[in-house]
Amino acid sequence: MVHYQCVAKCPKNTYLNSTNFCVNATACPSGYYGDPLNGVCTQDCPGNSTTQMFANTNPNINLCVYICPDGFYRQNITMNRTCVSACLSNYYIDYINLLCVATCPAGTYAYVNGSCVTHCPTNFYADETLHTCDSTCTGGKFRDVVNNFCVVQCPPGYFGDATGGYICRTTCSIATEYGNPISRVCVTKVNCPTPYIYADDYSRQCVTQCPQSQNTYGDSVNNFCTLNCPWTPGGYYFKDPSTQTCVQNCPANPSTFADNSTKMCVEVCPSTSFSVTGTRTCESFCPNNFYKDTVSRVCVSTCPTNPVNTFFYSPNSTTSECVTVCPGALLADPTTMSCISTLCPSLPALYAHNNTCISQCPANHYAHPTLRSC
Q: What pLDDT, on a 0 to 100 scale, did the predictor assign at position 3?
């Protein structure tokens, strides 16, 4: 009835109530709202796959509307659709679609203030699976303090520290763990991966080469950067400055030799020893068939003739060396490049002069064919 007339349909902007009167929306009973689609007072605003209306509960309006007023959001799409200023418990305000949602849409995260945010605030971390902001991460994920995300892998320069509370750190929290640059997690030294096989206490990371600035060397036996290379039943390991590693055999390129006194690979052996090229070692005595070259301090198989002639000299069974002047009464024989105690050779004809066998005697000296001397 309108003005107490019977009508087939309530006029525009009036709504049929339970007593069959056409009334303004504000006159609908408490908990009922004017439905402009069906022209009735209704408890539940219309909603289907194509139409979604929500109750504007403002007593001065009391209408079903498509768009809620500013500061209000559509709550509960499936039933009891109303415009609310705060969502129900466990629902969050989706500011993009102006909806109350149980799960925030992609790219946004449910925050404890009841809203979906695009960036979690300090000390909260975005979980892209759960679409939530939380102070902790779940599922084995780490708190990325740089970007405020829960991550499976920390950003470059950071390492997932499970022992220290599942957080990304630049330095692992306990001294027995090191940052793995490949997986970007904290691991014990035995789990440092190839090629980052050395645990470095200086950087607290797994490294391919130990830092030269710290004078440490890669110990492949113990997977560690160490000041002193280990000794094993197989022998000593020597510090190789060319690779910053501990080696059993010093390299030929660059040419170095194992010095037992310093346990270092050195370019020049100390003054008390000679370089042995075959073994890349410094030795007090040269091996069989090798001679000490006192000029180059190298064990040689043939005494050198450059820059000066040198001659093989062996005073006893353990010492063989190259000398520029044969000692005592020994003669320098250029045919064998050795010091001899016998007469100079007759073929070719050589004669002794000043401890050397020569082919022609100097002026005022005559060759004695029997004594083989001048």
A: 61
Residue 2 pLDDT more than 60? Answer: no
Please say if the pLDDT value at position 288 is more than 90: no
Mean pLDDT of 23-34: 95
pLDDT value at position 79? 67
For 90, list phi and psi in degrees, rounded to 5.
70, 15
Kind of pairing, strands 291-293 and 319-323? parallel
Q: Is residue 122 a part of any domain in this protein?
A: no
Q: CA–CA separation, 150 vs 147, rounded Å?
A: 9
DSSP 287: P
Burial of 49 (0-12, 13-18, 19+ CB in 10 A): exposed
How far apart CA 302 and CA 248 sit, in angstroms, is 28
Q: Are 334 and 350 in contact (CB under 8 A)?
A: yes
User: Confidence band (pLDDT; 50, 70, 90) for 1?
Assistant: very low
Give yes or no for a contact between 301 and 294, defined as CB atoms under 8 angstroms apart. no
Phi, psi (rounded to 5 degrees) for 133: -105, 130
DSSP 37: T
**Is 135 inside a domain boundary?**
no
Is 4 among the domain residues? yes
Query: The pTM is what?
Result: 0.68
On average, the pLDDT of the chain sits at 91
Which of 40, 67, 85 delimits the end of a domain?
85
Residue 247, domain member (yes or no): no
Give the pLDDT confidence score for residue 64 in this predicted structure: 95
d(CA 275, CA 257): 7
Among 51, 66, 85, the domain-final residue is 85
Total domains in the chain come to: 2
E strand or H helix that includes residue 167: strand 167-169
- At 69, is the secondary structure helix, strand, or coil? coil
Q: What number is the average pLDDT over the span 88-111?
A: 92
Residue ranges of the alpha helices (H) in the chain?
none
CA dihedral 164, 168, 171, 175 (to 10 degrees): 20
- What domain range includes position 81? 1-85
pLDDT digits (tens, 9 = 90+) for 224-244: 999 999 988 777 899 999 999
